[in-house]
Amino acid sequence: MNGPKVGIIMGSDSDLNVMREAAKVLEEFGVPYEITIVSAHRTPERMYEYAKSARERGIEVIIAGAGGAAHLPGMTASLTTLPVIGVPVKGSSLDGLDSLLSIVQMPRGVPVATVAINNAQNAGLLAVRILSIKYPELAEKLERYRQEMYEKVLEKAKEVEEGFGKIGG
């Protein structure tokens, strides 16, 4: 994979702590990405240019995080045919519910995949899954990731069972 395949954008630097988790996942899977601030309200021209030029720059998936009114994912999706994954970022007043509802309630014809509040990790994983359709090496890495999760759950189950006795008995 040459050049960034995923664009991670956010409305403000205050979203960086959340959006950093998507970047970590992409790094874990070896997916090149770019990350920047693009505000739908404060820099609408920048948002427009970012979304309109993403495909020609080699971006294949966009992860857009936003809090409050959270227009960035939807407005970005309205300007491109690339898949857009919205990450509702928990704000200070409504615990992120305002962002979640803003992102998930897109009008027909302008889809935005939406993950849970502050769950940029799942946004990163969803981007990897989307890319795995085109890049088989990512599908293999995802399968290993799933197996590792499976084994971790079994280890935890064993610890619980040994600490409290077998389940049901």
Automatic annotation (TrEMBL):
Residue ranges that the Swiss-Prot or TrEMBL entry lists as coiled coil: none
Pathway info: Purine metabolism; IMP biosynthesis via de novo pathway; 5-amino-1-(5-phospho-D-ribosyl)imidazole-4-carboxylate from 5-amino-1-(5-phospho-D-ribosyl)imidazole (N5-CAIR route): step 2/2
Gene Ontology MF terms in the entry: 5-(carboxyamino)imidazole ribonucleotide mutase activity
Domain PurE intervals: 4-153
Protein name: N5-carboxyaminoimidazole ribonucleotide mutase
NCBIfam families, per the entry: purE
Family, per entry: Belongs to the AIR carboxylase family. Class I subfamily.
First-level EC class: isomerase
Protein keywords: Isomerase, Purine biosynthesis
Segments traversing the membrane: none
InterPro entries documented for this protein: PurE_ClassI (IPR033747), PurE_dom (IPR000031), PurE_prokaryotes (IPR024694)
Gene field: purE
Task of the protein: Catalyzes the conversion of N5-carboxyaminoimidazole ribonucleotide (N5-CAIR) to 4-carboxy-5-aminoimidazole ribonucleotide (CAIR).
Native species: Fervidobacterium thailandense
Pfam families: AIRC
EC number: 5.4.99.18
Residues where substrate binds: 12, 15, 42
GO terms (BP aspect): 'de novo' IMP biosynthetic process
Catalytic activity: 5-carboxyamino-1-(5-phospho-D-ribosyl)imidazole + H(+) = 5-amino-1-(5-phospho-D-ribosyl)imidazole-4-carboxylate
